[in-house]
Amino acid sequence: MISFLLTEEAKNEATILHKTLMENKSVSFPPNPSLYPLSLLREGAMIGVMILETKGGERKLLYGFSGAMSGIYDIPGWVKPCFSLSLFHATFDPYDKEIHRLTDLIEKEGREDLKEERRKLSAEAQEKLNEIFVFSRWDGGKIQGLPPRPRTGTGECAGLKLINTALRRGWEIKGLAEFKWSKESAPSEFFPPCEERCGVLMEEMLGLKYLYVDQSIAVVDKRAGMLSVPGRGIEKLDSVSHRFHTLFPSTPEVCHVHRLDMDTSGLLVLAFDRESVKNLMMQFEERSVRKTYVALLEGVIEDESGDVDMPMRLDVDHRPRQIIDWEQGKRAITHWERIKVITTPKERFTLVRFFPHTGRTHQLRVHASEGLKHPIVGDNLYGHQKEGERLMLHAESIVFRHPKTNEEMEFTSPCPFSLLH
Questions:
Q1: Pick from 364, 374, 381, 380: which is nearest to 342 by CA?
Q2: Residue 261 catalytic?
Q3: H or E segment at 401?
Q4: How many CB atoms sit inside 10 A of residue 331's CB?
Q5: pLDDT value of position 417
Q6: Neighbouring residues of 49: CB distance < 8 A, sequence distance ≥ 6
Q7: Is-cis flag, bond preceding 193, omega within 30?
Q8: If you compute the radius of gyration of the chain from its CA atoms, what whole number of angstroms results?
Q9: Is the dihedral of CA 199, 204, 205, 209 positive or negative?
């Protein structure tokens, strides 16, 4: 995650928290220096502050720390870990006792033969502990346990704890600031939620892979097979915009500013307020937004680059197919560049980059099939799709102006299939 609601208000609350802890000389709320002294908080420990809004519109603050403070997981005034402490002790303590017994035998009696037994016991204990984690989801559901072979510390980051608490309580996240603790100075550098250890968990918890979120816009990396917006019927409600609006209910119902086909993966932009929606939609309408796509095409394209200028319209007899129509179609222009030719034992493909100058429905799919005469691999409408094969089309980059600051924003998403063949 590049940034997740790192607002000025959240930064200010982080500074206030630092000052409060220093003045109280205690890490607990209310302060208790004898039981929870400030010394429990080690230099460099990651701290998080989250601003939220309840369903009734009340402003709330939450504080979180990564891991444990000097071995203590539950401190008054801070969010709890993503597991039951009673279950933690019931699971871990018996293992801990036996591991300590083996360690004593190894160190005091030289029982080197017990090292492998201790190693296996430690690994078994860790596997059992991985199973006790429980995380809340954007839709009210639960995630039980950590992903397979998690890195040390997965599920214990400050940001993830805060997000988990917010989702469990049904509060809307308004701001998040994470910083490294230092008694020497107030926080000046802030960090995004941990991608290395908790990125996969957060994507499932939040419902989408968020690359950037501020108070006006969000940029997500949509997976193939997910709708951009709801279709007709309750069975087609699940979509990027539905998940976004569920996580951030104060956003307008129409929070999307453009779409990707369900089978296309890649970058999508959403907005938090009507003014931002209108501004971004206008940028798309005026064609000032720059987008690139990567596609894997059937066969070999000999030329290095070119343009496809072929008008399109809906095939009303075969919805949702689009067709080339030189009389009634709307103008559609695509520039393309060959990246490389890929040869396998059975087939040959061409990886290309598309630069659409217009944004017609299925434009790239039709221009690949009809203009280049090389359909996109996995295209069930304009080409061929093998069982279990995805559409090999990915929205790789996007450049637009921020609706509030007018700053140029650029985002990229690595192509997920360029090395599959």
A1: 374
A2: yes
A3: strand 393-401
A4: 11
A5: 84
A6: 10, 13, 14, 17, 61, 62, 63, 175, 176, 177, 178
A7: no
A8: 26
A9: positive
| Residue 110 to residues 98, 114, 117, Cα–Cα distance (Å) | 17, 9, 14
| Structure confidence at residue 421 as a pLDDT band (50, 70, 90) | very low
Looking at 63-132, list the stretches that DSSP marks H as alpha helix, in order from N- to C-terminal side. Answer: 85-109, 115-130
Q: For residues 230, 232, 235 and 241, what is the CA-based torsion angle, rounded to 10 degrees?
A: 10
* pLDDT class of 3 with cuts at 50, 70, 90: confident
Q: Tell me if residue 203 falls in helix, strand or coil.
A: helix
For 376, which DSSP code? B
Of 297, 295, 281, 259, the C-alpha closest to 373 is 297
Helices and strands (H and E) in the chain: how many: 8, 17
Distance CA 170, CA 281 (A): 30
How big is the CA angle at 224 (ends 221 and 229), to the nearest 5 degrees? 75
Q: Which amino acid is at 219?
A: V
Count CB atoms within 10 A of the CB of residue 279. Answer: 20
How far is CA 98 from its chain centroid?
A: 40
418 touches 294 (CB < 8 A): yes
User: Which position among 93, 113, 238, 261 bears the catalytic label?
Assistant: 261
Task: Choose among 382, 385, 347: nearest CA to 368.
Answer: 382
Q: Are 413 and 396 in contact (CB under 8 A)?
A: yes
- pTM for the whole structure: 0.92
Q: What is the pLDDT of residues 28-69, one digit of tens each?
A: 999 999 999 999 999 999 999 999 999 999 999 999 999 999
Share of the chain above pLDDT 90, in %: 91
Positions of E strands within 230-372: 265-271, 290-298, 305-309, 312-314, 322-324, 333-343, 348-356
Are the beta carbons of 395 and 291 closer than 8 angstroms? yes
Residue written as token pair 């890490």: 27
Cα separation of 213 and 222, whole Å? 15
Residues 57 and 177: their CA atoms lie apart, in Å, by 21
